[in-house]
Amino acid sequence: MGVDASGFVEVGLEEGRLRGARRDGVLWFSGVPYARPPVESLRFAPPEPPRPWTGTRDATRPMPIAPQAASRLAAVMGDFSRQQDEDCLQLTIATPGVDGGHRPVIVWLHGGGFSSGGGGLDWYDGCRLAREGDAVVVGVNYRLGALGYLYANGLSPGNLGLLDQARAIRFVREHARDFGGDPDAITLMGQSAGANAIAALFAGGHAGPGIRRVILQSGAYGIGALDTDRAGEMGERFLHHLGLADAPDRARDLSVATILAAQGAVARETAQLGETAPPFHLLAHPPGLPADFRFDTLAADAMAGVEILMGVTARECQAFFARDPRMACLDHDGAQARLQALYGDAAAGDYARRHQARPDIHAADLFSDWISDFVFDTPTLRYADRASAAGAGVYFYRFDWQPPASDFGSCHCLELPFLMGTERAWNGSPMLGPGGPQAIERLSATMRAAWLAFARNGVPAAPSLPAWPRYARDTRLAMHLDDQPRVGNARA
């Protein structure tokens, strides 16, 4: 193995040889298969190990992403275009060297509501993290939407995307040394659906050895996991739109476009203002998860002895509601009625109390803040409380930075450009405002340094940060990340 004069590099794995390239000061491999293509008889089936290949596999081109419809946050993050293919169970790997080093390994699980995104998107380019932190950074593709999370008797057992992630982690552990990494120093890092997945991997016993640390960014733990009744209802709707209620196994032969069309129809007919959970996501049922799965109990307890960096943005749900035209005509009575319909009398009463305490707030803002608290803030704090009590070393952050005069504020996904990707990838992202990537340069460097320090030694630290205390239930101290970072209460 080694880099030739042209800048290409070859690595020999047990499965076959890979050809990568030098990129942005590190070595880059894309489209590394960690499982067999989930097509034909393997569509709607758990992942199987990759088959060996002959010759040298080209890993110098961007890998395809899982089949998906347009992201519901395209107006927030920006849009992307990438080849889609069911043959997507692949990795992107950035490493400073294939030299037998023992570098920390960061495995990235992307968000996207279990229905969009990809581990190799330019937004999530890991080259800068690999270069600055002397680390191996791995982006994971996994199956999405109905192809990854459908639960339907006679067709799919559910949680296939979760099992994909477990297979990817096993592959990374087995091959970490081939890419200059330490299989006993793995950090799992995920945002939104990716953070939910990491918790589920631990609760389901899929994380495996070698994972010392986890980074959980904006986990939507309040959406919980589907029970078999609700998941089964979504499966029945899906098969109905395919016309296959009595012959579900025929879905294995349909085109991807037909699958996505039925998935979209289910999403549209079940969508409600204030409901953030997608129709196809984690299922509290084997395979993958225990039937009594909860993030703040089983997942937190399963992380005893693991070091955790976790947190939220200050106004998560502005990403979902700021540009929703239905919010413009929402009044307080309508907002309270909507919450009562979705979450019951207690939710409506809590909204009324918050309105009484903040009488001048607009209904759209209070509604968005209430959902943010219900889906993100309070469940994340409960998770942190239990994990720290169980013996995990927890560090908490609250991302407060926001661009000037932005209706998005410090919304869901806003921390991502501070950590991953290239300036070009994030240039023009609506949530960053007119300043673009240049406006975030200083805090971005600080956050990357802190995240990389955590991956290396379990303590997030950077020269421009005050000392970051461990989280404890009685104090709930957190690092507030802004132009002037400070330590304060995680709720403030």
CATH architecture of the largest domain: 3-Layer(aba) Sandwich
Order of helices and strands: EEEEEHEEHEHEEHEHEHHHEHHHHEHHEE
Mean pLDDT: 95
Gap between N and C termini = 52 Å
Strand content: 15-25%
**What is the CA-based Rg, rounded?**
22 Å
Which structural class fits the helix and strand makeup? alpha/beta
Low-confidence stretches: none
Helix content: 25-40%
Give the number of DSSP strands.
16
Question: If you consult CATH, what is the topology of the largest domain?
Answer: Rossmann fold
CATH domain class name of the largest domain: Alpha Beta
Describe the biggest sheet? 14 strands, mixed
Shape: globular
Helix run count: 14
Domain Carboxylesterase type B: 11-487
Keywords: Disulfide bond, Hydrolase
Pfam families: COesterase
Family: Belongs to the type-B carboxylesterase/lipase family.
